[in-house]
Specification:
Chain lengths: ~575, ~575
C-alpha cells in the first residue's frame, strides 16, 4: 500500500484521501509536519481559528522494525508561542498510522457549532463521528472507553479537559502499549485539537506490513543501529534509572533551576533523584524499565507505584520531576508523581504547567514547596477551568502577565525547561534560537556540555556553544523526521557506525540513495522552513533572546549570568 | 527659569536635576517622551522590570495662555503592547510642570523591596517619600488626601489599585481643575508606575511664569488660534453634547462595534447617545460643559449626576460609553456612568477593560447586556485582583487567551476602540500601523471619513485611506508634542489660519523660526523614532495587521469585511 495523505475538514465535516505530492515524498515526522504547516497555514492567522491546521505524521522509519522508531510528530501554528511547532511523542499511534499507509493526517477548518467529534482512521480513510459521552472526561477514561468500544488494539490520540478548554499549555496524549499515556507535550497543540472540536482519534490496527525496498540491507543496518544503541553507556543508564538520573548530575553541575530560577542547586535533590526513584520502584513492585512504543530498546520509562503498590504514573521524566520538584521546591516524589498523573489525565504539559506554578509561587498565590496546594490547584482549578486554573493552564508567561511577575523564564512565551542557561550556556543558545520557543529537545547540548557525549564543550564558557547548538539542532531536525527517539542521539554522536546505519535504513526502506550529507541537509532545510514561517508570522532576531533577568541575576553556585550579545546569538543562523 | 530634566532613580532612591541635552531642546510632549524612551530604554527589556523608564513631559506650549494646550504626555515601553507608548491626558499637571521648568520627569530603576513611595516635585527638584496610608486606595481618595496634606492647589498624578497590582490595562490619573480625574488611559502605563512602586506624584503650584520670547507675537497668534477653534462647528458640538455626540453618528454610519464586534449598529443607541446624556445632565443639575484643564475653550467634558442629582462622573467620553455600552450591549447610561466612575477610581483604562468585558461576555463569563454583573466584576474582582479580575484587568487579549476566544479585537495586544475598521477603513489603517497598537487618537480618520473635516474620503472604499491615515498620524504626532488637545485637529484641518497660528505660537514662545514644513517634519520624525524602537523590540510588518476575523466576518449593516492586503498596509510607511 503506497503512502497517502488523510485530510479532514472540520468546517464541513468532509474527509478525503490524497496522493502524496512529490515534494513531500521524502519527508516524514517533523520534516513533513513543518512542510505542511509552512505550505498551508497563514503564518499570521489566529492559532485557534479555522485557518490553522493540525498535522500528524509518523517518521520515515515508523512502523518498521528499526529500533526506537515509533515517535509520532504533531505540528501546527502554536497557540502558546505563535511560532510553527512540532512536538513528538511515543505511544502506538505512529506505527499504526504508518501501517495504515497514512503519511500524514491533516486536520483543517473548524466547526461552527458546539458539537464535539471523534475521528476514526481505517485503511479506507477517516470517519467523523459526533461524540457526547466522553466530552469533559480525562485522557485515561478516553483510552478505556475506546478499548470498551473498539477492543484492546486500537490506537488512541486524545485531549483532556484542558485541550477542550483551549488552554495554551494543553497537550495531546497518545495511548502507549500498556494503555497508559505518552504526550505531545509542548506548545499547546491540545488547544488546537480542542479548537477543532475533536476529542479523540482512533486508529484501526491494520495488519498490513510496511513495504521495504531492500529487506536484506534493512536488516543489516537495523542490527548495526540497534547494537550502537545497546552498547552506549548513557542509554544503558537511562534504562536503569530513567531520565530522572539527571537530577543529581544537573544539580552537581549547578544548573538545576530551583525556586523559580533563583538557584542552580536544590537542597532536596536526593529525595527526587533517579536513584531514589529506582529504589522506590523496586520496593513498591513497579517496573524500572518500560517502553513507550514497541521496538524501543532503551526503555527509559518506568511504572511508578504509590505506597500501596498501586499504579501512579509512568513516563515519569526528569523535566517533569524537575519542574514540579526543584523549580517549585517540592521534595516529595510521591506528590510529584501524583501531579504528573493528574496533568496526564487532564491533558496539560507538565513542564509548562509546573513552571507556571513556580511563577505563581513567586507571585504569592501559593508557597514554594507546597506540593499539596499545587495538587489542589491542578485538580480543582486547572481541570475545572476556574479563572486561576486558566491563568496557570495558559503557562508561565500567562501567570507572569496576570500577576505582574518579571522573573518569568520563557522564550517566545514558552517555559524554559530543566537546565539553567546561565550555567549551561549551550542550551541557552538552543532556547534562544529554537524555532519553537524554549525547548531542550530541539538541540540538546546537555549531551556535550555535561554528559561528554560528542566530545566536551565547557558549559560555563561562551566558546563553541553557538556551533554546538547549531550542529545539534540541524541533526535533531533530521532525526525528528525519522520517527527516532531523541535518545538515539548519544549513539549517533559517539558511535561512528550509528548514523550511517540510520541513513542506510532509510535508503533500504525507500530504495533511495541518500548520503549522510543529504540527511544533514534535510535537517538544515527543515530549520530554514520553520524559521521562514516564523519570520512571516512576525518573529525577528529580537525574539531570539532570553528574558533580561538572566543577564542581571547571577545564579548560584557558579554565580554566572547569561552574557551572549545579540550578534553572537544571531550568528547561529549563519548556515 | 530655563527648562530642566528632573530625573528619579527608584533603585537607589536618588534624584537629580539635569540640563536639557541640545537634541531634546526643541521637543515637548510626545516628541520628547518618545525621544527619551528611544534613547534610554532597551527595546527588548521587560516593561515592568528595572530597565524600563516612565517619562512625563508637558507640551511645548503647556503652561502658556495658548488655548487647549494643557495636555501632559506620558511615555514608556508599554507592558500591554510591548511597543513604545505615549498616552496624553488633561488635568492640571502639564501646566504646573511647565511652570516648574520641568521639561521632563524621567523615572528609572525599581526598588528591590516591598515599600511604596510618593514623589514630590518643587522648583528645587524631586523629593522621594515612603508612602503607607494611601497604598491600596482609589484615585479619588489619593486626590483628597493630597488636598488634606498639601492644600487645594497641588497637582496630582496617581495610580489606583490596578496600577499597584501591575495590571496591563492600568492607567495613570491626573487631577483636573475640579479635583476630579483625567487619565493617561491606554497601554498600561499605570502598571509601569506600579512596578516602580510609586503610588502618586505631587506637583508644587509654583507661581513662576513661562518665559515668552516674543510676547506680542504670541498674543496675536494665540488669538487667531483660539478664534479658529471657537468658530469650528464640530468643536461647538463637542462642547454642547460632549464626545458622546458620536454615538448616533457612528451608529448611523454602521460602524458602531456592537456585541463584541459582530454588528455595526446597536439597538440601544438612543439610550446612550450624547443627546440623551445632554438632556439627563440638564434635568439632574449637572454641567453640560466642563474643561479638563484651564484654558480649554472647547469644554467637551461634563459633570454627569445620578438620579439623586449627586456627582457620578465627568470626562465621560464616547469611547468609554461605546465600550461598556454598545460593545457589551448595555443600554443603561447610569450603569455605564457608574462603571466609568469605578474604573477611574481603581485606575484602569475604560476602553481596554470594557472591550475585555465584551470578550468575557462572548466567552460566557457573563451575559451580553448584564451591566450589573459587569459592575460587580469591576468592584469585586478587578479592584480586588482576584484571578478573574486580573484576567480582565490585563485586557481583551488576555481574556481571549485565557478562555480560548478567537474573536478578539486587538492590534499589538491593545483593544480596538469605538469605530469598526471594516466600515470605516481609514481608521483600520490607523489601528494597523500606529506605533502604539490599536489607537484611534493616533490618526483620527473619523474626522475625514465621517465628519467631513479636511474634506471627505469614503469610509467604505479602500481608496485614499492609507494616505489619509498617514497625513493624520504625522500631523497628530506633531500636535501631540505641543500640549494641544486632539480636538484642535478639526480647526487645523479646516481653517487655514489655524496651523500657522499654532506654529507662530511655538516660535514666539521659544524665539525660533520654524516653518509649517518643519512642524510636519517633526511629526514624521517622531513616528520614525517610535517605529525604530518597535523594530528593535521585535515588531515587523506582520504585526501591522488586524485580527483575521475582520477579513472573514462581514459586519452588518454594510456587510463589509476588512480587505486590505499586507502590501497595501505596508505602503503606509513610504515616507
Amino acid at each position: 500500500m503506497s503512502d497517502r495523505i488523510f485530510r479532514v475538514n472540520m468546517t464541513d465535516l468532509s474527509t478525503r484521501i490524497e496522493d502524496v505530492p512529490e515534494g513531500w515524498a521524502g519527508l516524514g515526522g517533523r520534516g513533513l509536519t513543518s512542510a505542511v504547516v509552512a505550505a498551508e497555514v497563514d503564518p499570521t492567522c489566529h492559532p485557534l481559528g479555522p485557518l490553522n491546521k493540525l498535522v500528524f505524521a509518523p517518521g520515515l522509519l515508523s512502523g518498521t522494525v528499526a529500533a526506537n522508531s515509533g515517535r509520532l510528530s504533531c505540528g501546527a501554528k502554536s497557540p502558546l508561542t505563535g511560532t510553527i511547532k512540532e512536538s513528538n511523542a511515543g505511544g502506538t499511534a505512529a506505527q499504526m498510522l504508518a501501517r495504515l499507509g497514512c503519511k500524514a493526517l491533516i486536520i483543517e477548518g473548524k466547526p461552527s457549532g458546539d458539537k464535539w467529534y471523534s475521528l476514526h482512521l481505517t485503511p479506507e480513510g477517516v470517519r467523523i463521528q459526533e461524540e457526547t459521552e466522553l466530552v469533559g472526561q480525562g485522557n485515561f477514561r478516553v483510552v478505556e472507553a475506546v478499548r470498551e468500544r473498539f477492543g484492546e488494539r486500537h490506537g488512541v490520540i486524545t485531549i483532556g479537559p484542558c485541550g477542550e478548554m483551549r488552554m495554551l499549555a494543553a497537550n495531546i496524549s497518545v495511548k502507549d502499549p500498556d494503555g497508559k499515556l505518552r504526550s505531545h507535550g509542548r506548545g499547546g497543540l491540545g488547544a488546537v485539537m480542542g479548537s477543532k472540536k475533536i476529542k479523540f482519534i482512533t486508529i484501526d490496527p491494520a495488519d498490513s506490513k510496511i513495504p521495504i525496498a531492500d529487506p536484506e540491507k534493512f536488516k543489516g543496518a537495523s542490527r548495526t543501529f540497534a547494537k550502537a544503541l545497546l552498547d552506549h553507556p548513557i542509554t544503558e543508564g537511562l534504562g536503569e534509572y530513567g531520565t530522572d538520573i539527571l537530577i543529581n548530575i544537573i544539580n552537581e553541575a549547578g544548573a538545576l533551576p530551583t525556586r523559580n530560577f533563583t538557584s542552580g542547586q536544590f537542597d532536596g535533590h536526593d529525595k527526587i533523584s533517579g536513584e531514589t526513584m529506582h529504589d522506590l520502584i523496586k520496593k513498591r513492585g513497579g517496573k524500572v524499565k518500560h517502553f513507550c512504543h514497541k521496538g524501543c530498546i532503551i526503555q527509559c520509562s518506568q511504572v511508578y507505584n504509590d505506597k500501596e503498590g498501586k499504579y501512579l504514573t509512568s513516563g515519569f521524566e526528569y523535566e517533569s520531576i524537575w519542574a514540579m520538584g526543584a523549580d517549585c521546591c517540592v521534595d516529595d516524589l510521591d506528590v510529584i508523581a501524583e501531579a504528573d498523573h493528574v496533568m496526564d489525565d487532564i491533558g496539560i504539559d507538565t513542564i509548562e504547567t509546573s513552571v507556571a506554578m513556580g511563577v505563581a509561587m513567586e507571585a504569592g498565590i501559593l508557597e514554594f514547596g507546597d506540593g499539596k496546594e499545587a495538587l489542589r490547584i491542578l485538580r480543582e482549578e486547572v481541570s475545572q477551568g476556574t479563572p486561576l486554573g486558566r491563568i496557570i493552564g495558559c503557562g508561565a508567561a500567562s501567570v507572569g502577565r496576570a500577576f505582574g511577575v518579571t522573573r518569568v523564564p520563557v522564550v517566545k512565551n514558552q517555559a524554559i525547561p530543566a537546565y539553567d542557561p546561565r550555567a549551561v550556556k549551550g542550551i541557552g543558545i538552543t532556547y534562544a534560537t529554537s524555532t519553537m520557543g524554549a525547548d531542550h529537545t530541539s538541540g540538546y547540548t546537555i549531551a556535550t556540555n555535561i554528559l561528554n557525549s560528542g566530545g566536551h564543550v565547557d558549559p560555563l564558557s561562551k566558546e563553541g556553544q553557538v556551533e554546538l547548538s547549531r550542529n545539534l539542532q540541524i541533526a535533531t531536525a533530521a532525526v525528528d523526521s525519522t520517527g527516532m527517539c531523541i535518545f538515539t542521539a548519544f549513539a549517533i554522536l559517539d558511535d561512528e557506525k550509528c548514523l550511517p546505519a540510520l541513513v542506510d535504513m532509510i535508503n533500504a526502506r525507500f530504495g533511495t540513495q541518500l548520503t549522510i550529507d543529504d540527511f544533514m541537509n534535510l535537517g538544515s532545510s527543515i530549520l530554514k522552513t520553520e524559521r521562514e514561517f516564523n519570520m512571516k508570522a512576525g518573529f525577528t532576531p529580537a525574539h531570539d533572546r532570553l528574558p533580561d533577568f538572566f543577564s542581571r541575576e547571577p545564579v548560584p553556585p557558579h554565580n554566572v549570568v547569561w552574557d551572549f550579545s545579540g550578534d553572537e546569538i544571531d550568528a547561529f543562523w549563519d548556515f
